[in-house]
Amino acid sequence: MTTQAQLGDKTFTLERFPLDQKNRSLQAWDSADEYLINYVNEHHPDCRSLLILNDSFGALACSFNLLTVCSVNDSYISHQAVAYNLQINKLSTAQFSQIDSLSALPEDIDLVLIKIPRNVGFLQFQLSELSEILAPGTPVIAAGKTKEIHNSTIKSFEQFIGETKTSLAVKKSRLILSTAKGGYKAADFPITWPLEGTEFNITNHANVFSRDSLDIGARFFFNYLPETKKETSIIDLGCGNGVVGVMALARCPKASVTFVDESYMAVESARLNVEQNMPEQFDNCQFIENDCLTDFDQDSVDMVLCNPPFHQAQAVTDHIAWQMFKQAKETLKQGGELRIIGNRHLDYHDKLNRMFGNCKLLGSNKKFVVLSATKNY
């Protein structure tokens, strides 16, 4: 598939990330990007200062590079992708900045562009943050696939931003056109809830999977977590709110645990959950935003625990699981173990056998399997 994107009256080279795991069936822009760019060029030609939310791979940042642009993403990978695509297109970053989803938003903004995220709670959090800083009358334009824009999506814009309408559909994408009314409207995040069967309370920021209760996969995985009084090094890979790593800490009191996720909100949630529930072990933990285990020291840890995702941005894909397994093997010490949970239909057993030369079934039910692979070479 070509990486040449015709966006508005410009052509760019746009790559998905991570580069060493490119899936050529997926492209780094979509019809919602195209629709949004064309609309802004036609209706807001005098815009000078632009705030962009959720630009996954930099299509919008590249297209509006001549403006003063602040790009906001919760994804570490998106930060890397946007910077990379600006670089390979030889575009200046003198007027460009990137911030994570928990940083304060800039206030001197002419126009806000949003790619609608999968997570409704995260969208509401972002709209709430915008309501606090936007001057009355500031236009907010969001774009997404028509099938992903529901009545509840429109109501969220009306609740937090102001008067809202939608465009006609073009290439199965639609715009949401809203105008800031002024006045802060709070969203109910972060959320805290009791972890069943424990004395722990779990705090989740808005863009964390299963943010208001224990997900059924983690609940099943708890039955197969390690338990030892020996010193051991563990990585909770794709940690989310860190609940798996927290439970591993509870069962392995001499463990050092590294929590890794590509979501800034996930890593911050994990940090809070260790700090609030196991403060005595906080100094034995690290919290890292990263693209899986890229640049981790090889042969350095005893165990990797993982519940691999099977989507990136809006696309369903298994390349993230492949990357996690490959990099876990590189990071594990000789004799170290990768222990994962996954949906039965994803056939991780075959992947692990091919990569490690072994795979053991630790447990299963109608929906999930828990698998173990050992690094023997």
UniProtKB/TrEMBL annotation:
Residue ranges constituting the RlmG N-terminal domain according to the UniProt record: 3-180
Domain Methyltransferase small: 200-371
UniProt keyword annotations, A-Z: Cytoplasm, Methyltransferase, rRNA processing, S-adenosyl-L-methionine, Transferase
SUPFAM superfamilies given in the database record: S-adenosyl-L-methionine-dependent methyltransferases (SSF53335)
GO biological process per UniProt: methylation
Residues passing through the membrane, by range: none
EC number: 2.1.1.174
Protein localization: Cytoplasm
Primary residence: cytoplasm
MF terms (GO), sorted A to Z: methyltransferase activity
Domain of life: Bacteria
Catalytic activity: guanosine(1835) in 23S rRNA + S-adenosyl-L-methionine = N(2)-methylguanosine(1835) in 23S rRNA + S-adenosyl-L-homocysteine + H(+)
Signal peptide limits: none
Family membership: Belongs to the methyltransferase superfamily. RlmG family.
Function: Specifically methylates the guanine in position 1835 (m2G1835) of 23S rRNA.
Protein name from the UniProt record: Ribosomal RNA large subunit methyltransferase G
Protein's organism: Pseudoalteromonas fuliginea
